[in-house]
């Protein structure tokens, strides 16, 4: 496993300007950020940044746009506490601190030429969106692409407009399911695991990526193993409480692994022997 090598971007705080701020739900806002002088973040899909607001603190947040987006990058932030609430009060033109990018992202080079099944539960769509956008921007580099999204209710589906575009594409198979529907919902109803048996997967050429709440992983992996997807080709992104993001404080430690710099993205064979990982 290649642990992330530290560089100056991990220690120094850049001034990020909020170019656009858009409400996605009563708790979630999407911020488009620009670094000074058109500087690029140079992130891989699946990496995160440490975002700070003076006087409030710092929080790890996934970059939710593809590096192919250009000079800006997106952060989707849920208002849950001190730091995230303060970020929600910021407006277009305001600044915040950005360190990073941190961690190991999705192994996109390894995915090239193979089929992908990208599986997100709830807020897992936030880090997965960077990968989906990347794959769509480089569509010819990949085989069959399926995106499976599971949410509790239709109200919890974020990025509705964008998802509709994914759904319309003929080169992407997109399915969304909700645990509990409302009268207007005409899609699938049921937990995300119920979608996997329907998928026609060729094990030797399929990589499966899973991002979602901790409870989801065990069951989704179980369904993928029933389809004979090799452990190495099951990729998970794990979320743990993080502080430094650099393998120093131990907050994110899982046995001998630091989720911040060994992950957050892992191949299943790297963590399957660790009981507390999933
Ligand atoms: C790798 C990574 C990527 C993340 N990406 C996103 C993202 O894209 N969008 C987003 O909205 N959130 C993301 N989070 C979660 C986000 O970091 C926390 O919600 C944030 O740190 C809470 O800080 P706060 O001061 O607002 O809340 P606090 O007042 O500190 O706590 C409020 C709640 O948030 C939980 N929390 C606090 N710190 C963390 C932490 N470091 N990690 C997870 N939960 C925490 C607490 O248990 C509590 O339930 C990510 C976390 C990690 C580790
Ligand atoms: S967040 Fe400090 S060691 Fe990972």
3D structure, described in words:
The chain has 278 residues and is α/β, with parallel strands linked by helices. It has two domains: 8-102, Translation factors (Elongation Factor Tu (Ef-tu), domain 3, Beta Barrel); 108-271, Nucleotide-binding domain of ferredoxin-NADP reductase (FNR) module (Rossmann fold). The chain contains seven helices and 15 strands. The strands form three sheets. Strands 10-9-8-7-11-12-15 form a seven-stranded mixed β-sheet, with helices on both faces. Strands 4-3-6-1-2-5 form a six-stranded antiparallel β-sheet. Strand 1 (14-23) and strand 2 form a beta hairpin. The longest helix has 13 residues, at 125-137. The two termini are 18 Å apart. The mean pLDDT is 94. Flavin-adenine dinucleotide (FAD) binds at residues 48, 57, 59-62, 76-78, 80-84, 126, 239-242, 264.
The share of residues in helices is 10-25%
In which order are the strands of the major sheet placed? 10-9-8-7-11-12-15
Describe the largest sheet: 7 strands, mixed
The fraction of residues assigned to DSSP E strands is 25-35%
H-E string: HEEEEEHEHEHEHEEEHEEEEH
**Name of the CATH first level of the largest domain:** Alpha Beta
Terminal residue distance: 18 Å
Structural class: alpha/beta
Shape designation: globular
Bound molecules: flavin-adenine dinucleotide, FE2/S2 (inorganic) cluster
The count of β-strands is 15
CATH architecture of the largest domain: 3-Layer(aba) Sandwich
| Rg for CA atoms | 18 Å
- How would you name the CATH homologous superfamily of the largest domain? Nucleotide-binding domain of ferredoxin-NADP reductase (FNR) module
